[in-house]
Amino acid sequence: MTQLELQQRGVLNLLKSRGTPPRDPWLRLVEGSRELAMLRKIAIWWRTFQIEAQCRQTSRLLKRLGSFEALVTDYFNRNATSPFIEELSRSFLRSLEQHYDPVVRAVSQLEYAALNAQAGLPVACEILWDRHPDLVCRAIESGAELPPAEPDCFYRLRISGSQPFTLTCTRESTLEVS
Amino acid sequence: MPGFEAAFGGRHMPALATTYEGGDPALLERLVELVDLLEIAPDTIVGSERGQYILRPEVLDEYAGVSSRVGLIAHGIGLSIGSFDQWNHDYLRLLDELFARFDLLWHSEHLACTVVAGESLGTMLSMPRTQEALDLVSRRVELLQKLYPVPFLLEHVIQILPDAPAEFTPAGFLNAIASRTGCGLVLDVYNLECDSHNQGLNIHAFLDELNLAAVVEMHLAGGVQYEGFQLDIHSSITHESTVTLACEIVRRAPNLRAVTFEYLKEAVGLLGHDAICGELQRLRQTVLPQAVLQ
Q: Rounded distance, CA B260 to CA B276, Å?
């Protein structure tokens, strides 16, 4: 491994808070430095900024839940993030597919489909909501309180076809799925 | 409209340039009345089509609409010319697309690493000033010079991390790349101030050592101080100290062709069109005339 590779891989690991403690003297100097902390802040600030611009609904929702910055940081540390904003945004949204909050899951999937549509990528998908999707989106947009979950039913939003896309939403009883 | 021909007709006043990233036609219309060149940052106008990165056609159309009135230059962010393994091939495809559409006067990139082993750092890492880094960057500069028919310039970036073991001084490293490859330099005056603040760079010693004949373009921008660091956020108009330093450099750089005021698209709302245009007028009146005072 050349010195350049050692340094660049080392900084990447330090920046993403992973890997084993470095043995190289310069990397050890960097490791605990305020300069590294600032570089990390800058990297995450840019990712936050870009994701916020591209994924408006999801980032608003996550901010409301107080978890936006933590999720972006976690995403940045765990993933090989793309330098291109569209890919970064899509990848971030995909990372929320398994989020514990069903509203976050649904909103991020909807926004993911929207970004795919803009990019000419396939958008066909089915998104399950535990409350009225339109009311959720309106509440996020306006800053109003989210509508409550509807325990006895769910909403199945289907996006299909190619442009113009077809959106259908059906309200179904939870008793029908098991 | 300021005379573009006059700006390039020999050693007169440098051209005035600024950033434009699309989507703001009212601003664009005002800018082309004030500047000679528009700087296109391909990375900032990327879209995608069926999974392929492309330059957003609607923004390219905006540039095309004004290309008879201003010259165009390209300034990359994400080539990652200093990555130990490989540079960013996606960026080169974007550059190919830009060259296929426009007659660019020159193109430039940051002397930095933004991708490591295929993974984005999310920021720019300055290069260690070593023989190994010099060899790597020089090879790639020479390749770029073969690939594209216009001059290529390199810009130094601010250094945040502690200085790595070095075999060259900051100016000496730039001189070595420029003399080995014949590439030009972009001198970012605000970056020098950041390095002075963050790293203790002696700007006057740096300028005394730098081969100022290699400087083809100068960048001006404003930034912020945050937690004791001075950062190149490009979020404000140029600080007075930066303008003063710029005037000195313009007097001393015999081959300077353009002075570019850079701002983030996202800062436009904060700054406002009037402030951006006022800044361009100020720079044209104060900085550019220094060239004929040398």
A: 12
ipTM beyond cut 0.95: no
* pLDDT tens by residue, B242-285: 999 999 999 999 999 999 999 998 889 989 999 999 999 999 99
**What confidence tier does B3 reach under pLDDT thresholds 50, 70, 90?**
very low
Q: CB contacts < 8 Å between A and B, how many? A: 109
Which positions in chain B touch A84 (Cβ < 8 Å)?
Answer: 43, 46, 48, 53, 78, 90
Q: Do the chains contact at A84 and B51, CB–CB below 8 Å?
A: no
pTM: 0.90
In DSSP notation, A71-139 reads HHHHHHHHS---SSHHHHHHHHHHTTTT-S-HHHHHHHHHHHHHHHHHTT----EEEEESS-HHHHHHH
Provide the terminal-to-terminal Cα distance of chain A, rounded to the nearest Å.
55
Scan for tokens 């295929």, then name that residue. B118
CA distances from B285 to A140, B139, B217, B231, B278 (A): 47, 40, 18, 27, 11
